[in-house]
Amino acid sequence: MKIAKIELSHHAIDLDPPFRASWDPVPRRRFVVDLVRVTTESGLTGVGAGDPMPGLRGNEHLFIGQDARALGRHFRIIDNLSFFYGRLWPLDIALWDLFGQITDQPVWRLLGGTSGRVPCYASSGTLREPKAMAAQAEAFAERGFRWMKIRFHERNWHRDVAKIEAIRAAVGGSMELMVDCNQGWRMPWDASPSWTLKDALAVARALEPLGVFWLEEPLHRADVAGMKALRDATPIRIAGGELARDMESMRSWIREGCVDVLQTDAVCGGGISGLNELFREARAAGIAFTPHTWGNGIGLLANAHLVAGLGPMLPLEFPYDPPEWTTARRDHGLMTPIEADADGCIELGEAPGLGVQLDEAALAATRIG
Fold first, then answer.
1. In the chain, which residues have pLDDT < 50?
2. What is the pTM of this model?
3. What pLDDT sits at residue 183?
4. Could you please report the per-residue DSSP string of 323-344?
5. pLDDT of amino acid 246
6. CB of 237 within 8 A of CB of 215?
7. Distance between CA 169 and CA 122 in Å, rounded?
8. Where would I find the beta strands (DSSP E) of the chain?
């Protein structure tokens, strides 16, 4: 079962109104996705998608002619390429989708899972006033979500805390609330500094009486000692690692005991192959996992299959913050958007591979290269 062809295409949709992401000082007016397809000599095709993947074109020969089922070999080559070029992990996702089709099994079952039903949390992305955030939380609860993540990034973090207070007043103890501090990394054009340990500890102290479940990315990604000190100082769980590029940096986080929840995204670092190992190691060390999924629908599916295969420890991120960020925007290029059911879960079903159904007409209309 040899690989015959690898194709990369670029797609974009305009965002009107723009999406004002809390972590980006520049409003987003376009959403760009790279789509990779891996096709065998027999005509089966696996797909993956993510951010732009420099370094894939020109290196297809490293895979063409190889057995599509040699996932371990392909993982090592993708890891090499991702060191020298961009993050090429969507290729690993496409290979797993293909492997599932070859074996006629959903990826979650190939990974050892017993159910394709995945509980999710509603993940907001924009900064709103306290009253609007409380209304959004109530709307999420009505949709069946029992967990919600709120983004911090106001100039004064006390204004962020006021939003959690408003949400608690509105929903009481009926929802678990998580906070994403957005301090672990910055967009290329954002020169603002990350919080110090004392900043993060002050925020944690303010949030402790409000029953916040975790504090995400509260310090710069390199401040391992700071995260460990913060974890030791507060009962709130510390989460992070969403955009890690490599496995070894995350293994150091496990060894150092600096997080309670590991959030590495299969699209951004390690693919399904790498995170299948990493998350098992985290669980053995008493660290929970639930990957970052903010991106496109295929990436959401890949991470959902991964956690379903391992057995979910915590709900999976479900990026959803209407009207700025809808499932239709997130999942453009799919025949139908991925939706959560009345219990806040997504059902992966029994379709082989990832179960991706592409809308070829939409992809043709949004292709930019």
1. none
2. 0.97
3. 97
4. TTB-HHHHTTTBSS-----TTS
5. 86
6. yes
7. 18
8. 3-19, 28-40, 45-50, 117-123, 147-151, 176-180, 212-216, 237-240, 261-262, 288-289, 316-319, 345-347
